[in-house]
Amino acid sequence: MTTEPRAFLTQDAGAATIAAALIGRVAGRWRLVGSLALPAGADPDAAATVLLDRARAADPDLATSLGLDGAQPSDLPRVDVATRPARRLAVIAGSERALEPLVAAASRSGWRPVSACPETTDPLAMSTMLLDASVDGILAGAGDPPAADERRALGELGALLAAAAGRRPELTVVLAGGMGEQLAAFGDASGRPSPVVVAPAGAGAGDASVGLRQVLLDLALATDDSRRALGSAALSLAEILDRRVDVVEIGFDGGTRVGAWPAVGNGSSGVDLAVVPAAGLAPSDPDDAVVDRVATWSSGAGDRHRLRDRLRELRIAPWADVAGEGIELRLAAARSALGCLADWTPDWFDRPAADLVVASGGVWSVAAGPSVVLALVDVLRRSGASQYALDHARLLAPLGAIADQAERRAVMTDLADDLLAPLGSVITPAGLRPGRSVGALHLHGQAGTRDLELRPGGLSVVDLPAGAAATAELLFHDTVRFGGRGRRFAVDVTGGLGGLLVDLRDVPLRLPDRADLRAELLETWQAAVWAPSEP
Amino acid sequence: MSGAGLGLNLVPARPLISAPVDVVFRLAPGDRPLVAAGDSVVVGAPIAQRLRDPRLDELSIPAAATPRPGRRWVAPSDARDGRAAGGEFVFGWRGRWRVASGDIADPLEVPFAGIVRDVRPGTAITVRAAGRGIRGIVVLGGPTRGRLQATPDGELRAGSLDIGSAGTILVVGSRVDAETLTRARAMGVRGVIVTGLSSKERRDYLASEARQRSALHRLPPFAVLVLEGAVRRPLAGGVLTVLTSLVGHEVAIVADPPMLVFDVPNLQVPAPPADLVRVRGGSLAGREGRFVEAIGPRRFAGGVHLEAGLVRFPDGSVAAVPLGDLERFV
After folding, report:
1. Averaged over A77-94, what is the pLDDT?
2. Which end of chain A is least crowded, N or C, by CB within 10 Å?
3. Which DSSP string do the residues of A225-289 spell out, in sequence order?
4. Are residues A233 and A213 in the same domain?
5. Each residue of B228-248: pLDDT tens digit?
6. Ordered structural domains, chain B, with CATH
7. What is the ipTM, given to two decimal places?
8. Is residue A468 part of a domain?
């Protein structure tokens, strides 16, 4: 046996599904040999065993060359990541005005916040909230320096907080901004099993909460957390491809949005990670707001009570009832979750459209590729052109967990073609005037030029197979927004399972209020991109 | 290796019986724990007094009273001002202490015997139950205790309830409505175990429960243990076997974790056959059969490809079922 491994296993243990993959060294490159997704209650080792068995049965010679003959899962190196339910963070501040940015920062940093301030909550209720057994951490914040409306409440708030923290030393406490002045109230915090952390303020000029969000993310996500790893993976991918990459993950217990960009000119590469627990596929208690959001995207929702029942069942057993109507429910719930993700990351809309958008998470793996693209562009609408791809084997997070940056980059460079399934490209101009035609699209490819009249409000699919590249030339009668403003644009597009999607609908999307009209429209759009055929 | 041996491990497993069982009873500031860690408690023993309408008093406390957050404060008999006879120190500010107290307290009784594991004033008391438990999805109300009784044909309707069921915990089959639950509570039934409770019935019942809780004269504790979810489906065979053998015994329902707790040491729970699987979802939901083998990815309705297994049902038919729609009891 050589010291250099010729194969390794990856595992992404989510709350709903376990995704395992076998990576092998083939002709000097790392390649994806096989992958498997199972319900979360299954035996993870059994999944790896099945993968090895299938690899040996499908290509015995390859299995031999990878040293898999007689190998057990425990014989192979493994890269494991896991997703855990978000923990609860009690957020307190001296005023409602100061509370809002703190809740916003916590909500997109991997925590599930519950909040209170002295203006609306009495000290007893606030103490009850901090002492609640379901609370795992406390964030107390104030401006830096504290504003007048906060200052008079900070002393009492600090005393209340220190008393609660003293009774629950297992709680992590974050003192943000001016609240850091209350550190003395905690006495000697070094003896606590959990830390008291002083962090930057949550509010201020510009994107002031970045520092606080980073502190909260570091506290919320374990070192082997798959969402933390998604950030590292997206950054490596952006550097390898030299393109702006967005990763959108919808999971059982939360959603993740990653924006990564390569080094350009004097600017270095970077990544922005937002983990929004409220953007989960299956909220623990689907209230009216959740049911309404899902119903908005469901063409066959039925009555609200039935939909709520189905969402509860989805929460209890997310891996069950996938076939048939289950897909439609999951895609509606995923759109609802995407909407929530977008609400908590409003700054994303001001950014240029990513060159590549990668969908990740178990919910996407059961849907047809074109339906995944449609779900994403229905909700996360930005003018411009993007390529879409699917993390079909749920490899991104495990690869992102490879600690050594150079090693991670080398492995991902080899696997770049295997880990992403191309879904196609989407062209989304904005600011179109109503009318019969707003212009024309000329698609210049290897097979010649194809023309398409651009009709506002509609969706058109141009067949463009995976691997095919073309140039889309867009000529508009009037000025539109397409990244920048103008009337003539040319963009490079690539094909995929969904071809080229020309999306001339409103940005943002406007849906009819009447449920029947809305359902009809949703079905029309769905039929335009993909219609399932029964087995 | 292929076939049921390895393939069965791909089917999600669900424990039939859980042990040990650590039950958490939530407390709020001002609630008074009556036990300490390590204490043994018997069935029905009060472990805390819960304040019905807690308030925060601001008091000057002599330093000799050694106030500290979480400690109890008892007012000297000659210093009563008619408002607070005692309470719990919450926090001190500017030389005065905020003390959580109240006028009316309800006893919190433990519905099973056990040993107190942890007491955290203002947060929770954790008790390890003597016995075992069957895990559910959610409990509404509780904690409670009663004699387990099966309903005929697994059905329960409001009109079929009578006073003879007072003091019992009823096992209902697939589903129950809010009207029946409300009537059961009024009749003195201590609890209901049901496979599924729809969102509408759940909401209606909780509204009724909230109204009852705000009343001065409260009914005995009542709890609804939901075993599976929100849609109609029959009880799993393994669970039904255990519940049937518990009929006539005293059992308890607790909320955290949602569970039926029983202390019947000599109860022999027959282990379900290793290859017995139950279809949890899909068109075959509720049926049970023997797992034959894992057959890899298969295409199902809607064009979705899922890992599947072959299941042989008692009528001899064999069907390919997505592994996610199956469950087995361990």
Report:
1. 95
2. N
3. BHHHHHHHHHHHHHHHHTS-EEEEEEETTEEEEEEEE--BTTBPPEEEEEEEGGG-SS-SS--HH
4. no
5. 988 888 889 999 999 999 999
6. 4-14+272-329 (2.30.30.30), 28-54+108-130 (no CATH), 57-101 (no CATH), 132-262 (3.50.30.10)
7. 0.89
8. no
Among A37, A159, A321, beta carbon nearest to B281: A321
Tell me how many degrees the CA angle A249-A254-A258 measures, rounded to the nearest 5: 40
**Which among A90, A95, A48 is positioned nearest to A72, based on CA atoms?**
A48
Q: Does A162 touch chain B (CB under 8 A)?
A: yes
Strand-pairing partners, residue A196, are A173
Its pTM stands at 0.92
Distance CA B99, CA B73 (A): 8
Q: How far apart are CA B101 and CA B16, in angstroms?
A: 43
Each residue's pLDDT tens digit, A442-501: 999 988 899 999 999 989 999 999 989 999 999 999 999 998 899 999 999 999 998 999
Identify the domain boundary among A60, A82, A104. Answer: A82
Contact A313 B200 (CB under 8 A): no
Helix (H, G, I), strand (E, B) or coil at A155: helix
- State the nearest Cα–Cα gap between B209 and chain A, in angstroms: 18
> Mind telling me how many Å the CA of A509 is from chain B's nearest CA?
26
Q: Which of A61, A82, A103 is the last residue of a domain?
A: A82
Select from B6, B98, B302 the Cβ nearest to the Cβ of A324. Answer: B302
Closest by CA to A256, choosing from A348, A387, A172, A140, is A348
Q: What share of chain B is helix, strand, coil (3-state, %, to 5)?
A: 20, 40, 40
My answer on whether omega of the bond before B12 falls inside 30° of 0, hence cis, is no
Domain containing A172 equals 87-220
Give the helix/strand (H/E) hosting A338: helix A325-344
What's the residue count for chain A?
535
Task: Report the number of distinct structural domains present in chain A.
Answer: 3
CA B274 to the chain's CA centroid = 27
Contacts of B157 (CB under 8 A, 6+ apart): B180
Domain with A76 in it: what CATH number? 3.30.420
Return contacts of A511-514, CB within 8 angstroms, 24+ apart: A511/A296
The C-alpha atoms of residue A81 and residue A50 are separated, in whole angstroms, by: 19
Structural domain includes residue A494: no
Strand order of the β-sheet with B304-312 is B13-14, B326-329, B276-279, B288-300, B304-312, B318-322
* Same domain, residue pair A20 and A133: no
Instruction: State yes or no: pLDDT of A535 exceeds 70.
Output: no
Contacts of A532 in chain B (CB under 8 A): 302-303
pLDDT at A366: 86
pLDDT (tens digit, 9 = 90+) per residue, B8-66? Answer: 999 999 999 999 999 999 999 999 999 999 999 999 999 999 998 999 999 988 888 88
**Do both A405 and A256 map to the same domain?**
yes
Mutate to test the interface with B, among A291, A322, A390, A392 (most CBs of B within 10 A): A322
Same domain assignment for residues A75 and A134: no
pLDDT at position B78 over 60 = no
Helix (H) or strand (E) holding A35: strand A29-39
Pairwise CB contact (< 8 Å): B137 & A127: no
| Nearest neighbour of A159 by CB, restricted to B30, B92, B306 | B92
Instruction: Specify whether the CB–CB gap between A376 and A359 falls below 8 A.
Output: yes
Q: Do β-strands B276-279 and B144-150 pair in parallel, antiparallel, or remain unpaired?
A: unpaired
Check: CB of residue A245 under 8 Å from CB of residue A358: yes
Q: What is the CA radius of gyration of chain A?
A: 25
Separation between Cα atoms, residue B142 and residue B126, nearest integer Å: 16
Q: Are A250 and A309 in contact (CB under 8 A)?
A: no
pLDDT of residue A121: 94
d(CA B262, CA B246): 8
- Do residues A195 and A321 share a domain? no
